[in-house]
């Protein structure tokens, strides 16, 4: 069972068809890590949204794309928002390895990606 209790049934593992069973085996190998990553990211997004509100910031979540979060941040809140983002995202799960977070800024998403 996964860290957050996620379960994924994979009926393909019971197939008599070799190719379907192989596909099920690939799904089984990927499901644990991908599911855990998705769960951690969802927890982080909820924490971040709550933290931005709790701090009374005008900054807000705009979009999530795969493993990225795009926020709209007024220029005078960049420092405060950075602290809130780092704390909320890093503390999303207690793991034996640190959750690393990278921040970048820009007027557009393309600018921030550099």
What gap, in angstroms, lies between the N and C termini? Answer: 39 Å
Q: What is the helix tally? A: 3
Task: Indicate the structural class.
Answer: mainly alpha
CATH topology of the domain at 41-113: Alpha-Beta Plaits
CATH architecture of the domain at 41-113: 2-Layer Sandwich
Instruction: Tell the overall outline.
Output: elongated
Strand content: 5-15%
Mean model confidence by pLDDT: 91
Order of helices and strands: HEEHH
Low-confidence stretches: none
Instruction: Determine Rg (CA atoms, Å).
Output: 18 Å
Instruction: Name the CATH class of the domain at 41-113.
Output: Alpha Beta
Strands side by side in the biggest sheet: 1-2
* Main sheet overview: 2 strands, antiparallel
Number of strands: 2
Helix content bin: 40-55%
Write the layout of secondary structure elements.
Blueprint: H1 18-54, E1 60-65, E2 68-72, H2 78-90, H3 109-113
Antiparallel strand pairs: 1-2
3D architecture notes:
With 114 residues, the protein is mainly α. The chain has a domain at 41-113: Alpha-Beta Plaits (2-Layer Sandwich). The chain has three helices and two strands. It has helices at residues 18-54, 78-90, 109-113, and strands spanning 60-65, 68-72. It has a two-stranded antiparallel ribbon. Strand 1 and strand 2 (68-72) form a beta hairpin. Helix 1 (18-54) crosses helix 2 (78-90). The longest helix is centred in the first third of the chain and has 37 residues, at 18-54. The termini are far apart. The model has no long low-confidence stretch (mean pLDDT 91).
């Amino acid at each position: 069972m996964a860290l957050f209790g996620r379960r994924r049934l994979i009926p393909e593992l019971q197939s008599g068809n070799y190719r379907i069973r192989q596909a099920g085996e690939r799904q089984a190998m990927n499901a644990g890590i991908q599911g855990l990553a998705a769960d951690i990211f969802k927890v982080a997004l909820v924490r971040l949204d709550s933290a931005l509100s709790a701090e009374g910031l005008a900054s807000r979540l705009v979009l999530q794309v795969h493993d990225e979060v795009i926020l709209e941040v007024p220029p005078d809140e960049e420092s405060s928002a950075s602290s809130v983002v780092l704390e909320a995202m890093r503390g999303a799960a207690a793991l034996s390895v640190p959750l690393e977070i990278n921040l970048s800024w820009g007027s557009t998403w393309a600018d921030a990606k550099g």
